[in-house]
């Protein structure tokens, strides 16, 4: 079938709005019609060429919601008409990872997903007869996309897809990192680096966890009004200080915070986030994604003296079992998604959504198919 799509033909170039060919679902696969998608910084990161797993040409996009159109042979857990959120972190329920009870990282489709192909090693997308790569197992920048069955969470039909698409990455990642990865306790002090959707979602999670102080850090002061609205108790711009940001936070908090979260993808800030944690127990969670060749560094003494460095992917959330509950929480007014959506646009304006993100003018732009 034909599908409207925004294709990343090569790194560093705007997406091309074209009509692509989409093959029907094979065994264990599902054809989904996307209703809405948004742009996460990770899409921009991959498009920039900095992603070691970046494949071109490709159909990017991983934050979306849509409706199942057709299922391939052997698919039993979803059916046409189901409302679904694509999962870049699959959940097969049977692999070593899923059975461990220790992680949300599923091993079932991850290797082929990273190569930009379906689990059988081939692609369902082509443009003018030339194959296109899939992306993160989701490729939400095509109106019709094909995913593995294990990469879909079935959610309530009552929920507006142009809102819950944000649960496909940003909102879930931030809240989950607080709840599942850090397990922030009531009364904790928290520092959040980067006030994009991820950092704001961490703030929302920290409020839910009843943190006593939530320090929002960004070099763009325009972000602070929304940070306060989400529940930041203080906002700090590193550019306002001569001292390093870790020194500033340590002084503000009598020795450092209980938890910090890096939501930028900057390895220097990752170091600051670790070093602003309290001696003996402070934990720093890396959420931001850094480019090819980047490495983190600190004095080992920082860890010897009790600080803990952790990372979090999709907030440690198991998508198929837990995401329907996140959607229900949104419907009950317990999770705020609406305030992340600064812009709405027709899908065809997708390159404007990337421009707004790069300019720091948007949190999330929802694109409507
Ligand atoms: P974003 O671009 O909307 O937000 C980044 C924020 O960081 C901006 O407000 C920017 O002003 C701020 N910033 C940049 N440099 C800074 C610095 N030196 N000091 C302080 N603030 C600085 O991005 P986003 O969509 O919120 O994504 C944030 C990061 O999280 C990206 O790296 C993205 O790839 C990553 N991410 C990871 C996961 C995961 O599962 N681990 C999920 C989603 C996104
Ligand atoms: N491909 C990159 C890493 C990209 C990365 O870390 N992705 C995050 C999700 S970002 C969503 O916006 C993640 O979940 N990673 C775990 C995984 O299994 O991909 C690289 O460095 O190669
Ligand atoms: Zn994302």
UniProtKB/TrEMBL annotation:
Xref: PANTHER family: ALCOHOL DEHYDROGENASE, ALCOHOL DEHYDROGENASE CLASS-3
Family (UniProt): Belongs to the zinc-containing alcohol dehydrogenase family. Class-III subfamily.
Pfam family, one: ADH_zinc_N
Keyword terms of this UniProt record: Metal-binding, NAD, Oxidoreductase, Zinc
Molecular-function GO terms, alphabetical: alcohol dehydrogenase (NAD+) activity; S-(hydroxymethyl)glutathione dehydrogenase (NAD+) activity; S-(hydroxymethyl)glutathione dehydrogenase (NADP+) activity; S-nitrosoglutathione reductase (NADH) activity; zinc ion binding
Domain of life: Bacteria
Any single biological process term in GO: formaldehyde catabolic process
Protein name: S-(hydroxymethyl)glutathione dehydrogenase
């Amino acid at each position: 079938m034909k599908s409207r799509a925004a294709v990343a033909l090569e790194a560093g170039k705007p997406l091309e709005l074209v009509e692509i060919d989409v093959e029907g679902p094979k065994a264990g696969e599902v054809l989904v019609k996307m209703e809405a998608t948004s742009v996460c910084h990770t899409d921009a990161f991959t498009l920039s060429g900095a992603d070691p797993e970046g494949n071109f040409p490709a159909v990017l996009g991983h934050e979306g919601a849509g409706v199942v159109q057709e299922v391939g042979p052997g698919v039993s857990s979803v059916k046409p008409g189901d409302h679904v959120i694509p999962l870049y972190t699959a959940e097969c329920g049977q692999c070593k990872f899923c059975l461990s009870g220790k992680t949300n990282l599923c091993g079932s489709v991850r290797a082929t997903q990273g190569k930009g192909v379906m689990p059988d090693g081939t692609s369902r997308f082509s443009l003018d007869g030339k194959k296109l790569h899939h992306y993160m197992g989701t490729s939400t920048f095509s109106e019709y996309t094909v995913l593995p069955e294990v990469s879909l969470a079935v959610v309530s039909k009552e929920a507006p897809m142009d809102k819950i698409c944000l649960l496909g990455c940003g909102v879930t990642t931030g809240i989950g990192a607080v709840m599942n990865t850090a397990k922030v306790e009531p009364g904790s002090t928290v520092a959040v680096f980067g006030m994009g959707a991820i950092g704001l979602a961490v703030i929302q999670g920290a409020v839910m966890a009843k943190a006593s102080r939530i320090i929002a850090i960004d070099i763009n002061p325009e972000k602070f009004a929304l940070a306060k609205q989400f529940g930041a108790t203080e906002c700090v711009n590193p550019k306002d200080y001569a001292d390093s940001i870790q020194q500033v936070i340590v002084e503000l908090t009598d020795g450092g915070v209980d938890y910090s979260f890096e939501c930028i993808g900057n390895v220097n800030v990752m170091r600051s986030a670790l070093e602003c944690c309290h001696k003996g127990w402070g934990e720093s969670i890396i959420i931001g994604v850094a480019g090819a060749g980047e490495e983190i560094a600190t004095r080992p003494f920082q860890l010897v003296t009790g600080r803990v460095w952790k990372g979090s992917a999709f907030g440690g959330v198991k998508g198929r079992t837990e995401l329907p509950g996140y959607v229900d929480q949104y419907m009950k007014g317990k999770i705020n998604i609406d305030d992340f959506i600064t812009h709405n646009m027709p899908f065809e304006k997708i390159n404007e959504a990337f421009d707004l993100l790069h300019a720091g003018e948007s949190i999330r732009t929802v694109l409507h198919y």
